[in-house]
Amino acid sequence: MSRALTQTELLVELEHVVEENLNRHIDVAKEWFPHEYVPYSDGRTFDGVLGGEAWRPEDSTIPEAARVSLVVNLLTEDNLPSYHHEIATTFGRDGAWGTWVHRWTAEEGRHAIVIRDYLMASRAVDPTALERARMAHMENGFATEYGTMLQQLAYVSFQELATRISHRNTGRVSGDPVCERILARVAADENLHMLFYRNLLGAAFELSPSQTMRAVTDVVTSFQMPGAGMQGFARKSVTIAMAGIYDLRLHCDEVLAPVLRQWKVNELEGLDAEGEKAREELNTFMSQLDLMATKFEERREARHAREAARA
C-alpha cells in the first residue's frame, strides 16, 4: 500500500502545477470592469436620509425565482472574506499558491460588486431586506467541513462549476438582457476558476490516486453549496430548483459527472484497497443521485401540470 502524502508534501509537489495554471489563467482571463455592465442611469434614490422613493415589488419585472437566485448568489459572493481565510489557511500565502489565493479573491470580489450594483440600479429586490440578509449571513461566516487540502480542492472544483451554471441560468430566467449579460460575464470567471482547481486535482490523482479518490468521494457524497448556511436556504433552493435554475439533475449531469469524467475516475489504475472502496462508493452514490434527480423531475412536472390546470 502506498503511503499517503502529507499536506506539506502535497503543497510542495503541486507547486509547479499551480504556477503553470496560474500563468495560463492570467494569459486567458479577460480584464473587465463592473461599472461598464451596470445601467446606473436607470436607478433612483431610495427612501431614507436622502428622501427618495421607497422600494416596491412592482419596481421590477424580473420573475420571483430569478430574484431569489440573484439574492442567494449575491449573499454567497458576499462571504468572500471567510472563503479567503479558508483557502489562505490551507494553501498558504507564499509562492505560486499565495499568488493564486489573492488573485482568485480579487476576481471573486468583482462578482458581488456588479450583482449588487445591478440590483440597486434596477430595483430588482428590496434593498433593506437584502442588507439585513447580508449582515446575518456574513455574521455566520463560513468554515469548511473538509479537513484536508485534497478535499478542499475537490470541493472547489465542483463548486465553481455549480456556481457558473447557477449564474448563467439565473440570467436566462431573469428575462432581462442586462442581467443576463452580467451573469454571463461572472460565469466566465467561475469557469476559469473551475479549470484551475480541476487541473490541480487532476495532478493530485497522478501523485496519489487512492488518497485523491477518497477525498473526491468524501466531497461528492456530502456536497453542499457554500450558501447553505444562509437563512431560509432550503426554501430558496426549492424555488430555484422548481424554476430549473439549479436542481439535482443539473448537479448530477452538468457538475459532478463531467468533472469526474475529466479525471477519468473509472479508468484509474493502481488504486489500493481503500481507493477501490472509495471508487465503488462514488459510483453507488452517483447511481442513487441519478434516481433522485429523476424522481424530482417527475414531481416538478406533476406540480407544473397541476398549476397549469388551475390556471
Your description of this structure?
This protein is mostly helical. It has one domain (8-44, 59-310): Ribonucleotide Reductase, subunit A (Orthogonal Bundle), CATH 1.10.620.20. The chain contains 11 helices and no strands. It is globular and about 65 Å long. The model has no long low-confidence stretch (mean pLDDT 95).
List keywords for this structure.
311 residues; mainly alpha; Ribonucleotide Reductase, subunit A; 11 helices
* Individual helix count: 11
Uncertain stretches: none
Under the CATH scheme, the architecture is Orthogonal Bundle
What is the CATH topology assignment? Ribonucleotide Reductase, subunit A
Shape: globular
**What is the β-strand count?**
0
Radius of gyration: 21 Å
- Tell me what portion of residues adopts beta-strand conformation: under 5%
Tell me the structural class: mainly alpha
Please summarize the sheet with the most strands. Answer: none
Helix content: over 70%
Count of separate structural domains: 1
**CATH uppermost class:** Mainly Alpha
The ordered H/E elements are HHHHHHHHHHH
If you average the pLDDT, what whole number results? Answer: 95
How far the N terminus sits from the C terminus, by CA atoms, comes to 63 Å
Please identify which CATH superfamily we are dealing with: Ribonucleotide Reductase, subunit A
GO biological process, one term: fatty acid biosynthetic process
Binding site for Fe cation 2: 108, 160, 190, 193
GO molecular function, one term: metal ion binding
Pfam families: FA_desaturase_2
SSE layout:
Blueprint: H1 7-28, H2 64-78, H3 80-91, H4 95-122, H5 127-140, H6 149-174, H7 177-207, H8 209-220, H9 233-242, H10 248-262, H11 273-310
